[in-house]
Design a protein that fits this description.
heterodimer, A: alpha+beta, nine-stranded antiparallel beta sheet, B: alpha/beta
Chain lengths: ~500, ~250
């Protein structure tokens, strides 16, 4: 309802004029005031913001709001956890925990800003001394670089049942006096004032390109964007805020490596060679930490796979993993704080900016033509390998198929803007199903190998070895199931429908 | 949604004061509450400073559910809305007589707001009419304030006989003593006599208290201006007993 909006005031003094302008016989009554310091929370990648949600805390409570037209609607509240940053699992089981878990998953919720809210409640009274409209005036103050700054005060109208006309009259009065209805929540305004932009970070590279753009220029732009993601996540990794900083960074590296690997001929072979070696090393640097992170993230799920009598042994195993993880993380920090690491990133940044650089034979080719040829090649490989897959296919071949699918997917993602959105969406949906099962299969394989390895260093017959054995057994069964699903998926994927779709997707004339 | 009517065949027994205080307590306990002022005198509406819409004839309000709903006004208290009456309500019976299913008009209207409220309190006019029958039929409880005097005994008996002849559910009838003055011997005697008279006679009662009279001046429920007074406590206890009875009944 238009009535129940907030309106910006030029200053708090505007209230006097509004009071004086109230249509007779209405008058204003100043009721109580309140003051609170509110903290605003979100994950590093602004997941709550992206979902239209707001998480605010006062001294003891956190409250989750849905934002709409600048107004906030309370969804749920809970006790504020002690930790800062905190995770959804730091909350007691309940609606808040469930809601946050669904949106932020393994990401930490970080304190992004503190705001002081002064609120005054007002009542519009009629000649019978009846309250006909409820108002409130909010003043928000924040600190920016140790200086105080504030938002424009907001006047909110609350319509009372049966007095809709009076509320509308107040709204009309405000508009006639030049006060505009707010468009965004006060927190959005505050973020803007503090120059903190939710749009500044995305874990995905999304660059718009035209079919005729020179391939080399486009790829340089993609490298630059990827480097940006790598750099942005570094601080979070160093501070060890949550596991996803490293994950996002690794994914950016992985995607970029796949791209440069598949687009050979864009730069000179020396450049491609240097890239492969340097980014390969960059990627391997964090393998150990990520492997251990994944174990720890999944530990609750693994506990359910093992008979309760063996849980003791499993817990010991996880304790061991935890301390190994901390040790590996320390090593990673050391490496990331070295000059070598920073120099590497700087050099490649410079490569992307330099007016001239060592080109390859495809450098000046239109990007659309190049992308098409690589996509065709990648897809053909999948079809060829996919046809050979059956129950007797060794695991290694299935892993190769998985890697092939990833390559295809990354190409689609980088070059999305060159193709029809509709067709691309369909293609990616098909790929996703297959990739999910391939991924699960691979994870299980990797974990079993890992466990087998662990077994060697553990006393035979100990409770830990028994727990590991049970876990391996459960995983083996899951792997067999995943394999069956993969057969179905691959049949569908290399079928006539997908080939048709691929043809349509790559057809000339689109964009 | 439950419906509690505050009804008496006699005037001046503290009916409206009870309706106002009980509605306030219902709202305070978290129930979305509507107080319907069915009395043309409009005392309940006066307490809450709410007026009926001047333009519309009460006819529309009582025939169209949408108009009925649009007459509802928020009170100054959370969870409590008021449906005000107007002087034109003195002709309500005539209107009801003309309708088909003339005894179920109120039930139908209240049914249209079933999803909006948890509790409806009806402040009824002091007469035994078609409107009263509408009230008796749709209410889950008919709370009757009774001043413990001999004449009140007779009036209560008349009401009981009416219920029997109209084949109404006697379990709904919940009299309670109001404006009670324990110092008066007559009050004590009548009270002693009547308390076992009817199985659903409420145990809690409202003494004669000046705070209740003061309501006409302050125009607020006693729970607001004098939260720790005897009057506030008495109504609290009465509300507790009444709401327990009503929630206990399944209907």
């Amino acid at each position: 309802m238009v009535r129940d909006r907030c309106y910006h005031l030029g200053s708090i003094d505007d209230l006097k004029q509004i009071e004086a302008s109230l249509p007779k016989p209405l008058h204003l009554f100043h009721a109580n005031r309140s003051e609170e310091v509110l903290s605003y929370w979100d994950s590093f990648d602004w997941r709550l913001y992206q979902t239209g949600l707001l998480l605010l805390s006062s001294s003891k409570e956190i409250r989750l709001f849905k934002e709409k037209d600048g107004g906030l609607f309370l969804l749920t509240q809970a006790d504020l956890p002690r930790a800062s940053p905190f995770f959804s699992w730091d909350l007691k089981a309940g609606e808040m925990r469930q809601s946050l878990e669904a949106v932020v998953d393994a990401r930490a919720l970080c304190l992004l800003m503190k705001v002081r809210l002064k609120r005054e409640f007002l009542q519009v009274i009629n000649e019978d001394n009846k309250t006909v409209v409820r108002l409130f005036v909010d003043e928000y103050k924040m600190k920016k670089n140790s200086a105080q700054c504030h938002l424009l005060p907001r006047l909110g109208i609350e319509t009372l049942r049966g007095y809709e006309e009076e509320a509308q009259a107040i709204a009309d009065l405000l508009i006639s006096m030049g006060h505009a209805a707010v468009q965004s929540s006060p927190y959005e305004e505050a973020l803007e004032l503090l120059s903190v932009s939710p749009k500044a970070y995305s874990s995905k590279v999304k660059i718009k390109m035209n079919a005729d753009d020179s391939s080399a220029e486009v790829v340089r732009a993609l490298i630059a964007a990827s480097l940006h993601i790598i750099k942005k996540n570094t601080d979070g990794i160093l501070a060890d805020i949550d596991t996803e900083f490293l994950h996002d960074q690794r994914v950016a590296i992985r995607r970029l490596r796949s791209l440069i690997g598949q687009l050979d001929g864009v730069f000179s072979s020396e450049i491609h060679h240097r890239f492969k070696s340097e980014f390969g090393e960059l990627s391997r640097m964090s393998n150990a930490v990520r492997d251990l992170d994944v174990w720890l993230l999944e530990k609750d799920a693994y506990r359910t796979l093992v008979p309760p009598v063996l849980l003791g042994g499993l817990n010991i195993f996880f304790k061991e993993i935890k301390s190994r993880r901390q040790a590996e993380h320390r090593r990673l920090l050391e490496m990331m704080q070295r000059k070598k690491f920073h120099k590497l990133l700087e050099e490649w940044e410079r490569f992307c900016q330099e007016p001239s650089f060592p080109k390859g034979k495809c450098a000046d080719q239109g990007i659309r033509a190049l992308a098409e040829s690589r996509l065709k090649k990648s897809f053909a490989k999948i079809c060829k390998e996919g046809q050979r897959i059956d129950e007797n296919t060794p695991d290694e071949e299935i892993h190769r198929l998985r890697l092939q699918c990833k390559k295809l997917r990354y190409l689609f993602e980088f070059f999305a803007s060159l193709f029809s959105e509709n067709h691309l969406e369909q293609m990616l949906a098909q790929l996703k199903q297959l990739q999910n099962h391939l991924g699960a299969f691979n994870d299980l394989h990797v974990q079993q190998v890992w466990l087998e390895d662990a077994l060697h260093s553990i006393k035979k017959g100990s409770e830990v070895s028994a727990a590991i054995g049970a876990l391996m057994g459960a995983m083996y069964q899951q792997q067999l199931s995943a394999k069956k699903l993969i057969f179905g998926d691959i049949r569908t994927f290399i079928g006539a429908d997908t080939r048709e779709l691929m043809k349509k997707l790559l057809a000339q004339g689109k964009k | 949604m439950k419906i509690i009517a505050i009804y008496s065949m006699k005037g001046g027994v503290g009916k409206t004061a009870s309706a106002v205080n009980l509605a306030y307590l219902a709202a305070k306990s978290g129930l979305r509450t509507l107080l319907c002022d069915l009395d043309a005198q409009g005392s309940a509406s006066y307490y809450f400073r709410v007026r009926a819409e001047g333009k519309h004839s009460f006819k529309l309000i009582w025939t169209k559910a949408k108009k009925f709903r649009s007459e509802i006004r928020a009170s100054d208290y959370p969870n409590l809305d008021i449906l005000p009456s107007s002087f034109s309500y003195r002709n309500l019976d005539q209107l009801l007589e003309k309708r088909k299913k003339s005894k179920k008009v109120l039930a139908k209207l209240l049914n249209s707001i079933r999803d909006d409220y948890d509790m409806v309190i009806l402040d009824c006019p002091p007469n035994l009419t078609l409107l009263a029958e509408n009230v008796f039929i749709c209410a889950d409880a008919v709370a009757v304030p009774v001043i413990p005097t001999t004449l009140s005994e007779l009036t209560l008996q008349q009401l009981v006989e009416f219920f029997i002849s109209a084949e109404l559910d006697m379990k709904k009838l919940m009299p309670f003593f109001a404006m009670q003055q324990s110092a008066k011997k007559l009050h004590r005697e009548v009270r002693e006599k009547l308390k076992d008279f009817h199985p659903t006679f409420l145990k809690q009662s409202i003494p004669f208290l000046s705070e209740v009279e003061q309501m006409g001046v302050t125009r607020e429920p006693v729970g607001v201006t004098q939260a720790s007074s005897r009057a506030a406590q008495a109504y609290s206890a009465l509300w507790q007993e009444l709401s327990d009875r009503v929630q206990g009944h399944s209907s």
